[in-house]
Design a protein that fits this description.
Layout lengths: L1 E10 L2 E4 L3 E2 L9 E5 L6 H13 L12 H8 L10 E11 L2 E14 L2 E10 L2 E2 L1 H5 L1 H8 L9 E3 L9 H16 L1 H20 L4 H51 L2 H5 L1 H27 L8 H40 L4 H20 L12 H43 L4 H57 L3 H44 L5 E6 L6 E5 L4 E2 L6 H19 L5 E4 L7 H10 L8 E5 L6 H7 L3 E10 L4 E6 L10
Parallel strand pairs: 4-14, 4-15, 9-13, 13-14
Antiparallel strand pairs: 1-2, 1-3, 1-5, 5-6, 6-7, 7-8, 10-11, 11-12, 15-16
Helix pairs in contact: 5-15, 6-14, 7-13, 9-12, 10-11, 10-12, 14-15
C-alpha cells in the first residue's frame, strides 16, 4: 500500500480547501516523507485525518469524545460553516491479485437540523464503486484490521508505556488476535455457548425456562455493563493520554524557562556555600604549607649544593685534625729516637718519610672553609631534601588540584544559579504544572477505579455464567430426553474445547516467530547484544519476559527511559513485520523525549527501513538541522506546517524549517 495524495478541507486547524499533499516517495531509496510544525500546528491532525478517512468510526483519534458523531462535529474547522462541513480525500494504491489498483476515498460530513450527516465516496481506478462504498468498513477491516492499525500509525511520545509488562501484554493480545484471525474463533465459541443454552432450555417447564431466562438476562446485563465500562475506560485512557501529553509539554516549557534550576535553587545555593567552604579550607592548608617547609622547594638545587659543601667542610675539618695529630705524633717519635742515640742519618730519613706522608695527605684536603659547620647539619639538610620536601610537594600538589577541581565545580554551580529565573517569571508555569499534575493524578486514579470496577464486573460475570451453566447442565441432566438435542450439546461442548486447544496451539506456534522478530528489532535498534539476549511471550497471558546478558530475567524497569522507548518501538516494529502487510508507517512525535544517543539509533537504524513509506510528523526540536542531515539520504519529500494566529488556520507548504531540498 502506498499513500499518494491527501486533501483536507475545513478539518481541525486546516481552514478552507488545502491543495492535495503528495505523499508518494519518489523512489524506493527515499521512503521518508517529513512534515515539520510547531506544537499545536496540525501534525497530529494529519495523523487523525488519514485514520479518519480510512477507518471512520473505528479510527483511533487523538482527541475523540465518547460519540463518533460528536467527534465529527468537533473536527469541523472553527471558522467554517457547519452546514458546509468538512471533508477528507485520500488516494492510495495497493496490489490486488498481481495488479496495482488505485483507490480514491472521500469522507465528507456536515451539520443540519437532523444532526451530523456523513457521506462516503469510493472510486477504484477512476470509476465510482457504490457497492464498495457501502461495504467499506468490511473492506478496510479485512486489509488493515483496526486491531493492528496502531502498529503502523502511532504517536511515538505515547508508546513508552507499552514497555511495561501489563501494557505490552494488552498490546500483544489485541495484535495477535487480529494477526491470527482469532476473533473468528472466539466468536464461534461464543455462538456455540448461546446454542447450548438455547438447546438446554428446550423441553423445560415454564418455571425452569423463566429461571434460565432470568439467569441469561443477568449475564446479558453484566456483559452490557462491562461493555459500557470498557468504553468508559477507553475514554478515560484517551483523556489520561491527553493529560499526560499536556503535562509533558508543560514540563518541557517549565524546564525550558529554567524551572528545574528554580526548584533546585536552595540546593544549588547550599552546594555553592559548601564548595566555597571547602575551597577556603584548602587555601588555608596551602597557607600553612607556605608558612612551613614549602618555600624550600624553590631552592631545592641550592640545598643540594649546600649539603655537598657542608659535607666537604666537615671532611676537611676531620682531616686537618688528623694531620695535626700525625704531626704531633711524628715529633714525639723523632724526639724519642734522638734520645736513644739513633744514627743521625736514620732519623733524618724517618723525618723525610713522615713529612712526605703528611704532605700527601695535605694535598687531598679541600680548601680551608670560610665557616665552621657542625657535622649533623648535612644530615638535617639530607632529611629535608629526601623526606620533608617530597611530602610537602605531594601535599601542595594535592591541595592545588583539589582547589582547581572545587573552583570548576563552583563555576558550574554559579552558572546554574545564574540561570535561575526570577520567581515572578516562573510562578505561573509552576502553578500550571502543579494543576496539570493534580489533574493527571486524578484522571489516573479515576481510570484505576474504573479498571477495578471492570475487574469486579468480570468476576461477577464469570460467577453468573458459571451459575447459568451449572443450572442449565443440572436441568439438562434431569430433564433432557431428546437424543438429538443431547448429541448437539455434547458435540458443541467438544467443539468449544477443540477451539480452545486450537487457539492455544496457534498462539504457541506463532509466538516463537513474533518473539524472534521483536528481539531482532530491539537488537537492531540498540546494538547492545549483551543487554537483552532473549525475549519470550506467555501464550496464555501474553506477558513478555526479557532475558539479560547474564541469563537471568531482566525486569522492564531495569532499562533506562530511552531503552524502554526503543523496546516499545521494537514491539510495534516486530509485530508490524509479523503481520506481513506492506503498509506505510506514520509516526507522530517521532523522537519523543529521547536523548541524543537514542535519537541517533532511530534516525539511522529505524526510520530509513521501517517501511517502504515512512511519514514523520516532527517539531524542529526533534528532527533538528543536524538530525535532518542524518536522514537526508533517505528523504523523499518535506513539508512545513504554517499556523496563522490571525486566521487560526494552518497551511501546508513544501520544505522544512531549514528549507532543505528533497529528491522530488
Amino acid at each position: 500500500m502506498i499513500l499518494d495524495f491527501l486533501t483536507i478541507e475545513n478539518f481541525g486547524v486546516y481552514g478552507g480547501h488545502q491543495p492535495p499533499i503528495e505523499l508518494t516517495p519518489p523512489d524506493p531509496d527515499h521512503p521518508i516523507i517529513l512534515f515539520g510544525g510547531w506544537n499545536g500546528g496540525g501534525k497530529t491532525t494529519l495523523l487523525d485525518a488519514i485514520q479518519l478517512v480510512l477507518f471512520g468510526s473505528k479510527a483511533r483519534l487523538s482527541n475523540r469524545p465518547r460519540s463518533y458523531r460528536e467527534a465529527l462535529r468537533q473536527a469541523i474547522h472553527r471558522g467554517a460553516d457547519p452546514g458546509e462541513g468538512a471533508s477528507l480525500e485520500l488516494q492510495f494504491r495497493r496490489v490486488v491479485e498481481g495488479a496495482t489498483r488505485t483507490y480514491w476515498v472521500r469522507r465528507k460530513w456536515w451539520v443540519d437540523e437532523r444532526g451530523v450527516e456523513e457521506r462516503l465516496e469510493v472510486h477504484v481506478d477512476g470509476e465510482p464503486d457504490t457497492l464498495l462504498a457501502e461495504h467499506w468498513d468490511e473492506f478496510i477491516e479485512g486489509y488493515i484490521p483496526s486491531g493492528i492499525s496502531h502498529l503502523f500509525f502511532f504517536d511515538a511520545e505515547q508508546i513508552t508505556e507499552l514497555a511495561e509488562g501489563q501494557k505490552a501484554a494488552e498490546l500483544l493480545g489485541t495484535a495477535i488476535h487480529s494477526l491470527l484471525g482469532l476473533e473468528l474463533v472466539d466468536r464461534l465459541g461464543a455462538d456455540l455457548t448461546v446454542l447450548e443454552r438455547r438447546k438446554r432450555s428446550e423441553g423445560h417447564t415454564a418455571e425452569e425456562i423463566r429461571q434460565l431466562r432470568e439467569q441469561e438476562a443477568e449475564v446479558q446485563r453484566l456483559e452490557e455493563l462491562l461493555g459500557a465500562e470498557v468504553q468508559n475506560a477507553a475514554r478515560l485512557t484517551n483523556e489520561l493520554d491527553r493529560k499526560a501529553l499536556e503535562l509533558r509539554r508543560a514540563e518541557d516549557r517549565f524546564k525550558k524557562e529554567g524551572g528545574d534550576f528554580y526548584l533546585r535553587r536552595a540546593d544549588l545555593e547550599s552546594t555553592q556555600k559548601s564548595l566555597q567552604a571547602q575551597i577556603d579550607n584548602q587555601e588555608s592548608a596551602l597557607r600553612d604549607l607556605a608558612a612551613g617547609p614549602a618555600p624550600f622547594l624553590l631552592v631545592a638545587p641550592l640545598l643540594a649544593s649546600a649539603e655537598k659543601t657542608v659535607r666537604s667542610a666537615a671532611d676537611s675539618k676531620r682531616n686537618r685534625i688528623l694531620l695535626q695529630a700525625l704531626e704531633e705524633r711524628d715529633a714525639v717519635i723523632l724526639s724519642a729516637l734522638e734520645k736513644r742515640k739513633l744514627a743521625r742519618k736514620a732519623i733524618e730519613a724517618l723525618e723525610v718519610i713522615f713529612l712526605e706522608d703528611r704532605e700527601s695527605r695535605q694535598k687531598g684536603l679541600a680548601e680551608v672553609p670560610t665557616f665552621e659547620v657542625e657535622e649533623h647539619l648535612a644530615l638535617e639538610i639530607r632529611h629535608l631534601l629526601q623526606t620533608t620536601l617530597p611530602e610537602a610537594r605531594s601535599s601542595l600538589n594535592t591541595a592545588v588540584a583539589e582547589v582547581q577541581r572545587l573552583r570548576e565545580l563552583l563555576v558550574r554551580i554559579e552558572s546554574e544559579i545564574a540561570r535561575v529565573p526570577a520567581a515572578d517569571a516562573i510562578v505561573g508555569l509552576e502553578t500550571e504544572l502543579t494543576r496539570l499534575r493534580g489533574e493527571h493524578a486524578a484522571k489516573k486514579a479515576e481510570l484505576a477505579a474504573h479498571e477495578a470496577k471492570m475487574d469486579s464486573i468480570r468476576r461477577e460475570l464469570e460467577r453468573a455464567k458459571s451459575q447459568l451453566d451449572r443450572e442449565a447442565a443440572l436441568q439438562t441432566d434431569n430433564l433432557i430426553q431428546d437424543e438429538s438435542r443431547l448429541r448437539v450439546l455434547k458435540h458443541s461442548a467438544k467443539v468449544r474445547e477443540t477451539l480452545l486447544a486450537f487457539r492455544r496451539e496457534v498462539i504457541r506456534r506463532h509466538a516463537a516467530r513474533i518473539e524472534s522478530l521483536m528481539l531482532e528489532s530491539f537488537t537492531q535498534l540498540l546494538r547492545k547484544t549483551s543487554l537483552v539476549t532473549g525475549l519470550s511471550i506467555d501464550p496464555d497471558t501474553f506477558m513478555i519476559e526479557l532475558t539479560g546478558g547474564d541469563g537471568k530475567p531482566l525486569p522492564f524497569n531495569r532499562l533506562s527511559a530511552g531503552e524502554r522507548q526503543l523496546l516499545a518501538t521494537s514491539l510495534l516494529w516486530g509485530l508490524a513485520k509479523a503481520s506481513g502487510r506492506p503498509l506505510p508507517t506514520i509516526i507522530d512525535t517521532p523522537l519523543g523525549r529521547l536523548d541524543s544517543s537514542h535519537r541517533r539509533h532511530l534516525l539511522e537504524r529505524y526510520f530509513p527501513v521501517a517501511s517502504h513509506q515512512v511519514i514523520l510528523l516532527s517539531t524542529d526540536e526533534e528532527i533538528t538541522e543536524t538530525n535532518l542531515q542524518t536522514i537526508q539520504p533517505f528523504l523523499g519529500r518535506s513539508y512545513q506546517l504554517h499556523y496563522d494566529d490571525s486566521l487560526r488556520s494552518t497551511t501546508i507548504k513544501p520544505g522544512y524549517f531549514w528549507n532543505y531540498e528533497t529528491t522530488s
